[in-house]
């Protein structure tokens, strides 16, 4: 005879003599306890002073900071999803002390109270780990990676396109003035030409168009030229103002995203189909020690070479001194970087781009007729 299965009993409606504590459901080695212990030890007075006295009570910023950090640790970034977790996830309930701020409170704290202060909190955590000898901030390893911006990849501005548009307006202004010269070709008195054809300032462009219109008053003018002048008067000054604004936002960059002006278009890492991706993004620079990140900066340039000095200056501002040693790949090797590291007294283990090529060539027999192998006679200025 087949035995019947035995089911484990549940006690969904069973009352407890002593109510359980949230602490009973959180393992002693769970990451949420680490977040709680570390945030309890850092100084958040810079956030506390932003709150005004009086009125209704506020959620304590330390608790909100714990919630945000642990949410990020669990890949939760939406304020609505964080709000949901506070009512469903036992770890969030324990960490928050069972308070349930809504998504607006979480979003306002993140974008308002915490803005510009998170880096200082990060630095405090790094120093805390250094005091516990978990890491060493004197010896660092630097590398970078491209991260995609949360921006529309199809709304972009290119510096070269702006330059071409300016040049096109300048060329058309000159063509319009040449037409004026052809109209006055048979007359002795000719109108004075515009002082400046450069399409740089909206007022200058508008002034040049007005001079052309004034010069053509009372003369028979081609309808296409009139149409072009009307279009130029309506659009070109505004276009030049837009180009100036975009150029100012880009600074020294060659591109930017319209939906995230701080982002630059960069070649991202290849996708699984080996296709290079050109997307709006940032060049994230990070230094580490013992697999802990000790400093981070965001750069708008695509090459790592130009980011090292700013990254180390940020490091010096955060910790009051430069590191003793730095290790980085050949992407950071440049004469400017080497000079800076030497001036700051930093021992550098940074290769230059042609290091491996030179090592391979050193193993080969030298070419006796190469200029480097020939003896130079200084007196006769010859080899």
From TrEMBL:
Pfam families in the cross-refs: DDE_Tnp_1, DUF772
Query: Where are the annotated segments for Disordered?
Result: 361-383
Q: Name one GO biological process term.
A: DNA transposition
Q: Which InterPro entries match?
A: IS1182_transpos (IPR047629), Transposase_11 (IPR002559), Transposase_InsH_N (IPR008490)
Name the residue ranges with Basic and acidic residues bias.
Answer: 361-373
UniProt protein name: Transposase
Which domain of life, per UniProt? Bacteria
What range(s) does the Transposase IS4-like domain occupy? 259-359
The Transposase InsH N-terminal domain covers 21-111
Q: Which GO terms describe its molecular function?
A: DNA binding; transposase activity
PANTHER family per UniProt: TRANSPOSASE, TRANSPOSASE DDE DOMAIN-CONTAINING PROTEIN
